[in-house]
Automatic annotation (TrEMBL):
One of its GO terms (molecular function) is S-methyl-5-thioribose-1-phosphate isomerase activity. It catalyses: 5-(methylsulfanyl)-alpha-D-ribose 1-phosphate = 5-(methylsulfanyl)-D-ribulose 1-phosphate. Its EC number is 5.3.1.23. Belongs to the EIF-2B alpha/beta/delta subunits family. MtnA subfamily. Keywords: Amino-acid biosynthesis, Isomerase, Methionine biosynthesis. This is Methylthioribose-1-phosphate isomerase. HAMAP family: Salvage_MtnA. InterPro entries: IF-2B-related, IF-M1Pi, IF_2B-like_C, Initiation_fac_2B_a/b/d, M1Pi_N, NagB/RpiA_transferase-like. Pathway: Amino-acid biosynthesis; L-methionine biosynthesis via salvage pathway; L-methionine from S-methyl-5-thio-alpha-D-ribose 1-phosphate: step 1/6. The active site is at 244 (proton donor). The keyword Isomerase applies. It comes from the Bacteria.
């Protein structure tokens, strides 16, 4: 993504070649600031506090967290401790467990003296692969947008609704749900995006709007409750969202509120697509509702809002009645039956065991592979 005339990935190495730089997403859209991570503890805290967020970027950051740990101490004990520390940061996005599992498999058999170098190169590979996967998702999703555009009057705008942030900022580059939108815009297809604000942390209003704006894609931020109304009035041609964990049967965990959008889309005959790279598939699960762990985050994210105050400072204010309790489940599960299709790096498939097995025959029925 180009920001201020410069191309940025969301994670990269500092000029010293070992520290890890990320964009502080808690400061966006008001401040573009980077944070330099120099320990596994700092990487874990960046994930926990959502300086970095989004399933693929969480995985990439954890991989570099292991590299930072191996540079400090490449012993077996330090490796196990780093994997445990980073693995405990956030529970829902399976990319975290996937990336740490991969780092562990690569590093454990090695002589400790070789671990740091190998950890950095494996983390870099995970990042490069993520960029390629997202680019492919974009190309397959572009086909879907093209076919929806073809059903409309010549030159008519395709209106796409998205929830949360599943763009460049949630991945290493391009994004999942937003990659097809960027490619469609670049290909000259007129697209307009309805951006759900995505309470309580407002990833839509703050992050999706920021990056769509940076890329020049026309968009409108809406309150989370507006999507159903817009669908009833024919203002939404399709929905595309990302996912933090998709079961082998096509159930989809994503940011809280996604399920309600899927219900509204189903009721109104609006196609509801989920874009995902294969590391987001949890091949060991078949029942998303019962088996996917849902992160419960701080009540303060519900009771307080943060934003740019008139004095130019980013401030937090309370919006909930003092003394009231607040609950904050951060994700929900959309059953496969409400999903029109899964857009993956290998193509688009039905959200079902058969659909996923058709695209990934080597993985289907092999949860531990
Ligand atoms: C490619 S990103 C898919 C999901 O990770 C994204 O939609 C999402 O729910 C992010 O949640 P977050 O809590 O901001 O990490």
């Amino acid at each position: 993504m180009r920001i201020n005339g410069q191309h940025y990935r969301t994670i990269w190495l500092a000029p010293d070649g070992w520290r890890v730089c990320v964009i502080d997403q808690t400061r966006l859209p008001f401040r573009f600031e980077t944070v330099t991570l120099s320990s596994a503890e700092a990487a874990a805290e960046a994930i926990r506090s959502m300086i970095v967020r989004g399933a693929p970027l969480i995985g990439a950051t954890a991989a570099y967290g292991v590299a930072l740990a191996m540079r400090a101490d490449p012993s077996d004990t330090a490796l196990d401790e780093a994997l445990t520390l980073l693995g405990a940061t956030r529970p829902t996005a399976v990319n975290l467990r996937w990336a740490l599992g991969r780092m562990g498999r690569v590093l454990k058999p090695l002589d400790p003296g070789r671990r740091a170098e190998m950890a950095y190169s494996e983390a870099a590979l995970i990042c490069d692969e993520d960029v390629a996967l997202c680019r492919s998702i974009g190309e397959h999703g572009l086909g879907v947008i093209r076919s929806i555009a073809a059903e409309k009057a010549e030159g008519a705008t395709v209106n796409i609704l998205t929830h949360c942030n599943a763009g460049w900022l949630a991945t290493v580059d391009w994004g999942t749900a937003l990659a097809p939108i960027y490619l469609a815009h670049d290909a000259g297809i007129p697209v307009h995006v309805w951006v759900d604000e995505t309470r309580p942390r407002n990833q839509g209003a703050a992050l999706t709007a920021y990056e769509l704006g940076a890329h020049g894609v026309p968009h409108t931020v809406i309150a989370d409750n507006a999507g159903g109304h817009l669908m009833q009035h024919g203002e939404v041609d399709m929905v595309i969202v990302g996912t933090d964990r998709t079961t082998a049967t096509g159930d989809v965990a994503n940011k809280i509120g996604t399920y309600l959008k899927a219900l509204a889309a189903h009721d109104n005959g609006v196609p509801f697509y989920v874009a995902l790279p294969s590391p987001t598939i949890d091949w060991s699960l078949s029942d998303g509702l019962r088996e996917i762990p849902i992160e419960e985050r701080s009540a303060r994210e519900v009771t307080h809002l943060s934003g740019l105050a008139e004095d130019g400072e980013v401030r937090s204010i309370r919006v909930v009645a003092p003394g009231s309790n607040a609950a904050n489940p951060a994700f929900d599960v959309t059953p496969a039956r409400l999903v029109t299709g899964l857009i993956t790096e290998r193509g688009v498939c039905e959200a079902s065991a058969a659909g996923l097995a058709g695209l990934f025959p080597e993985r289907a029925g092999r949860p531990q592979a």
